[in-house]
Amino acid sequence: MSTLVSLRRRERPAPHDPEFDRDVQAGLGAQVKTLPAKYFYDQRGSELFEQICRLPEYYPTRTEWKILREQGPAIAGIIGPDVEVVEFGAGAAEKIRLLLNALPRPAGYLPIDISGAHLSAAVASLQRAYPDVTMRAVAGDFTKQLPLPAPLPQARARVGFFPGSTIGNFTPDEALGFLRNAAAMLRDGGGVGSGLLIGVDLVKDPAVLHAAYNDSAGVTAAFNLNLLERINRELDGDFNLDAFDHYAFYNPRQHRIEMHLVSSKAQTVTVAGRQYGFDAGESIHTENSCKYTPIRFRQLAEKAGFRPAAMWTDPDSLFSLHWLTLPQA
Ligand code: AVJ
User: Fold this and answer.
1) Largest CA distance in the chain
2) Residue 46 Cα to ligand 1 middle (Å)
3) What is the mean pLDDT of residues 80-93?
4) Who's near 303: CB < 8 A, 6+ residues apart?
5) pTM, rounded to two decimals
6) Count of domains observed in the chain
7) Which tens digit of pLDDT belongs to each residue from 108-135?
8) Considering the domain boundaries, does residue 279 fall inside one?
9) Average pLDDT rounded to a whole number, residues 26-42
10) Which one of 24, 124, 128, 177 has the minimum C-beta count within 10 Å?
11) What range does the domain containing 146 cover?
C-alpha cells in the first residue's frame, strides 16, 4: 500500500522534445555556447517569470500595464470597433483583458501560442468573461508563417497584439523577420484599419536596466539557472547548478541586456550521453533582451511594411506601446 502511494507520488517522467534536444545539442556544441531563450518557460520557469514581473526592479510589466490602462481610451479611439484581436504568444492571456475592456465592441480574439493546453484553459475562462467576443485559439509557432482561420464576417479589421517587449528576445534582424511575418498574417484577412499594437522596452540609463536583470532577491538568477535544471530533467543532463553563475549586463553598443550562465570552473557536463567541456569562466549565452529608441523601432517597423501611426509611453520614458498600421497594397 505505502509502496503504491510512493510510486504514484513520483514525478511524472519528463517529456522528451526532440526539437529541444536538437537545439541544446547545437547550442552547447558550438564554439560560442548558446541556449535559446524560448526554453526558459517550463512550469517552474513560467512561475519564476511571473515573480520577476512583480519585482520592484523589474519595471517593464507594471509600466506597460499602466500605459495600457491609462491610455486605454486613446488606444481604443484609434483602433475603433469591430476588430478581431490576434495575440502573438498569449501565454496566460491576462493583458488582453485590459485591451478587450478598452476596445468598443471587440468582435473576436485569436490567440496564437506554442502550448495548446495552456491556451485552451486560458481561453475558456476568458470566454466566460467576454461572451460576445468570438474566441478561436491557434496552437502553433508564430515566428513561422501560420495559416490563420478565415476572418470573422462581423470583423472590420484584424489587430495584432504583441505586449511585454517579447520582441526584445529577437535580434534586430530576427525582429524584422517577425514583423514582416506578422504584417503578412494580419494583411490577408485583415481589412482597412488593420495593424499591430506592440510593447517595446526603451533604451535608458544602463543602471536601471542592470538592476532589472540583477534583482536583489535573486529571482532572475533562479530563472536563468532553471534552464540547466530543465535540461537535467528532460534531457538527462548532469549540470551542477552550483558551478554556474547568473551573469547579466547591458551591452550599450548593441542596445541589449545579455544574460549568460558562466562556468565557475573547468568541468565536463553530460547531456543525453554527449559530453561538453567548459573552461573556467566560459559562458553560455542564454538571452538577449533588446532595447529600442522610439525612432529606431519605427524605422524597423517601416522596413517591415508597417506605418508607425501612434506611440504611448510613461512619464519616465521607460517603456513604449506602438500602434503600427498596414497600408493597403
Ligand atoms: C519576456 C523577454 C520580455 O527580456 O525582459 C525577464 C524575459 N528575462 N528577465 C525580458 C526576462 C529576464 C523578458 N521578456
Assistant:
1) 70
2) 11
3) 87
4) 176, 179
5) 0.93
6) 1
7) 999 998 877 778 888 999 999 999 999 9
8) no
9) 96
10) 128
11) 1-238+292-329
